[in-house]
Q: What sequence folds into this?
């Protein structure tokens, strides 16, 4: 299957746009390319992301077509909306072909020093595991919380908020990291506290499962940043924060899933 | 370390025998299963190769007239009327001469399911337990399906798609629990199909879902799919909206509501869509959603096998689509069982119950035999796997 | 004149020329229907990225969906627009009698003859600096309906919001 997807994408992009597969999930495959679809590169090191949603053979062609278009668009639309919200950091949308299921995006992040891999939150926390309570770590995690807070305050839910979907970008001065959220494939506009609670729970689980020794402190910092955003909005903000946090505790208690009747 | 031989079989035999009683919905099933006591079960993760021998598998389904569903009270009465006869037949077919000496454990469905039918069956289970002086074990219905499926297909660690009248779940094993990765947010897939069959007023025998499958096969416009809502939400799915929509289409079709542009040509008034087309489109849409969330779960836990269990699992089209998805994934394989084991039965309860029994888990007091309508798959501690 | 070939659509050549101090907009408009070019008022364009993303989208629409207008040139104007109304797109992005800066675009097979001599003005380099200077940012914010929701701090932020609108128009 992988090879088939690579062949399809290679054919679509033509020989002028060499692509490299970097990850493949159930729904989409992610490629990188050094070629911009319509601008001349000014910087040779520049790379771009191509996200491709392959059609599924098990699905009726009519469903395939409608889904590919709908999902490609809805992800692009959310990225466009989020960019306009002050403070939220998401990758830039470059191009989008909903008929074939392609999205071109700006590539964010870099390789961490000493072989710790790509600069997502997960690897960053591994890198800092020896000095995990350092102020820089706290600073970064509070900012992560602020990003999620901004997202939720504006009634967007990520839907797949794992530590690999938070990418850290070095600030221009080089000293600190700026968290950016990526992969909005499962995101939606939602004012339901349940969805927000689940987002927070999914991230908490991800942190516990990969960085269990320090997870309490980490999650505390994330929530600190999250609360900062809500508290800026006075009484209404505090009330909404209480609701979300109560539901988050509730979701944690029952392990995400609702109770079920036969 | 898992030791399935914790409890020795009765009377120094080299095998275990369990009887299972199932009646959580409209099927009443009694089955007898035999496990040889093997050295390979002393240690290691071998609960999927019990070498189980099915001595009998008797079932009676409460079938309602077309257009009607089964109500708890009537279903419970059906089970009460039949349970003694079915138990007797199962014992006879299994060639058990004296259940008192032969049977190690009596297994019953503890839940989830409809309250009244569950009650009828557990009363029968308690009675024979006292009568024969054989211990009881309460089994989670979903776990019963999973264990039966694993035993029949020998799938070691599959992602399980459990699709029946009351449940729609994608399950994967992790740390002694069958964890639910995705599930329906409203009605179950089987329930959705059953209710649509009621709207179409088609026969409930042998099962409404089977008849929808047959109608779908006869669809002549397979390239002209009727677009229905596609409601996958992350790992979960929702089906009530789809049902409401296709129900309204079917009603318009029967009423010959010529204003409906989707169903009738606005100029000639000719019908564009048949009942067969509706069945086909409904199946294609619902099953695509099921396969999609199953694939997500597979990617998540990095699994290559899928096991489909539950009544809807006997649908050939669903199996086909799942097989296609697995072929497209590296080394993927799909396992499905036929209607004998897909549809609720007593053997699966006996199989899961016997595993529990062999790990030393047995009910000590009758007050612990209370059945429950709510019983999540992930509440069960799976001691028989590593 | 700048020549661009989009890597994905190799057979198509795009020629872009930017003019300022144009004196004969009225004349050009009179014969605009016969000219095989897209003529765009430069005050509506903030960056090369904006124009090229629209051309890229036009080529995607034409290749994978359908052509909504009569030619690639009018398709290009439509793709610049945040709405799907063709007349509206011409009004907002096409030139007016009093336009003083013009972007002329030709999209076609390689080696087609191109002659922008009919424009009486100063041809300057098609760069983001020049475009930024000629652009009317308030006008751009207004036509892309950004003024209520979004206050860009830089030209590149405005450009990014505009590109988003171009990519998602009518979908």
A:
């Amino acid at each position: 299957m992988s090879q088939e997807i690579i062949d399809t994408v290679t054919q679509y992009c033509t020989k002028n746009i060499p692509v490299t597969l970097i990850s493949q999930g159930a729904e989409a495959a992610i490629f990188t390319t050094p070629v911009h679809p319509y601008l001349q590169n000014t910087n040779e090191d520049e790379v771009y992301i191509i996200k491709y949603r392959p059609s599924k053979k098990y699905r009726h062609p009519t469903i395939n077509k409608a889904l590919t278009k709908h999902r490609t668009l809805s992800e692009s639309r959310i990225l466009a909306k989020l960019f306009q919200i002050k403070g939220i950091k998401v990758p830039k949308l470059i191009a989008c072909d909903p008929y074939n299921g392609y999205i071109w995006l700006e590539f964010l992040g870099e390789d961490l020093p000493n072989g710790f891999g790509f600069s997502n939150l997960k690897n960053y926390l591994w890198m800092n595991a020896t000095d995990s309570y350092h102020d820089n770590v706290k600073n970064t995690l509070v900012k992560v919380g602020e990003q999620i807070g901004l997202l939720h305050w504006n009634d967007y839910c990520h839907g797949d908020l794992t530590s690999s979907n938070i990418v850290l970008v070095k600030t221009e001065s080089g000293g600190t990291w700026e968290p950016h959220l990526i992969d909005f494939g499962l995101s939606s506009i939602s004012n339901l506290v349940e969805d927000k609670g689940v987002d927070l729970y999914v991230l908490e689980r991800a942190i516990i499962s990969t960085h269990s020794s320090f997870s309490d402190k980490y999650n505390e910092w994330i929530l600190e940043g999250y609360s900062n955003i809500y508290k800026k909005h006075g009484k209404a903000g505090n009330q909404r924060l209480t609701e979300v946090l109560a539901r988050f505790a509730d979701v944690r208690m029952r392990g995400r899933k609702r109770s079920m009747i036969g | 370390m898992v030791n399935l031989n914790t409890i020795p079989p009765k009377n120094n035999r080299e095998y275990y025998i369990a009887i299972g009683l199932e009646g959580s919905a409209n099927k009443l099933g009694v089955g007898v299963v035999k496990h040889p006591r093997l050295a390979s079960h002393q240690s290691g993760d071998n609960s999927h190769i019990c070498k189980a021998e099915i001595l009998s598998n008797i079932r009676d389904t409460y079938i309602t007239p077309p257009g009607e569903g089964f109500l708890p009270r009537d279903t419970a009465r059906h089970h009460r009327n039949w349970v003694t006869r079915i138990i007797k037949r199962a014992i006879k077919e299994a060639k058990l001469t004296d259940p008192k000496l032969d049977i190690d454990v009596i297994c019953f469905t503890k839940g989830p399911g409809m309250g009244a039918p569950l009650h009828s069956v557990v009363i029968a289970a308690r009675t024979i337990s006292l009568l024969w002086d054989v211990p009881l074990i309460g089994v989670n219905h979903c776990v019963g399906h999973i264990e039966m499926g694993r035993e029949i297909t020998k799938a070691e660690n599959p992602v399980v798609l459990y699709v029946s009248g009351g449940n729609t779940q994608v399950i994967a094993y992790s740390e002694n629990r069958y964890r639910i990765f995705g599930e329906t947010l409203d009605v179950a897939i089987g329930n959705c199909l059953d209710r649509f069959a009621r709207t179409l007023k088609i026969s409930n025998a042998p099962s409404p879902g089977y008849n929808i499958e047959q109608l779908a096969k006869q669809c002549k416009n397979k390239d002209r799919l009727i677009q229905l809502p596609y409601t996958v939400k992350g790992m979960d799915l929702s089906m009530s909206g789809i049902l409401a929509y296709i129900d309204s289409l079917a009603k318009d079709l029967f009423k010959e509501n010529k204003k409906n542009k989707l169903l009738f040509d606005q100029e000639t008034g000719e019908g564009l869509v048949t009942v067969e087309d509706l069945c086909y489109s409904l199946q294609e849409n619902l099953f695509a959603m099921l396969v999609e969330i199953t694939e997500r779960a597979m990617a998540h836990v990095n699994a290559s096998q899928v096991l489909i269990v539950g009544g809807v699992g006997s649908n050939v089209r669903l199996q086909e689509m799942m097989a296609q998805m697995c072929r497209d994934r590296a080394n993927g394989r799909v396992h499905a069982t036929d209607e004998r084991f897909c549809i609720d039965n007593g053997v699966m309860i006996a199989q899961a119950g016997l595993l529990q029994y062999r790990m030393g888990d047995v009910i000590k007091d009758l007050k612990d035999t209370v059945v429950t309508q709510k019983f999540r798959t992930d509440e069960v501690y799976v001691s028989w796997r590593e | 004149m700048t020549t661009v070939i989009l890597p994905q659509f190799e057979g198509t050549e795009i020629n872009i020329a930017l003019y300022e101090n144009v004196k004969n907009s009225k004349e050009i408009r009179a014969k605009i229907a016969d000219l095989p070019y897209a003529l765009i008022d430069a005050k509506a364009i903030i960056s090369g990225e904006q124009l090229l993303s629209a051309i890229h989208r036009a080529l995607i629409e034409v290749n994978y969906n359908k052509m909504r207008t009569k030619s690639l040139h009018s398709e290009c104007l439509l793709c610049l627009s945040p709405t799907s109304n063709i007349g509206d797109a011409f009004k907002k992005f096409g030139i007016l009698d009093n336009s003083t800066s013009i972007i002329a675009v030709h999209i076609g097979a390689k080696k087609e003859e191109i002659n922008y001599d009919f424009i009486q003005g100063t041809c300057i380099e098609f760069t983001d600096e020049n475009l930024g200077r000629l652009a009317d940012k308030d006008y751009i914010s207004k036509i892309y309906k950004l003024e209520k929701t979004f206050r860009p701090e830089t030209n590149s932020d405005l450009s990014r919001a505009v590109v988003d609108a171009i990519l998602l128009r009518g979908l």
Observations:
- The first strand of chain A starts at residue 20 and ends at 24.
- The CA atoms of residues 142 and 224 of chain A lie 6 Å apart.
- The longest helix of chain A spans residues 61-83.
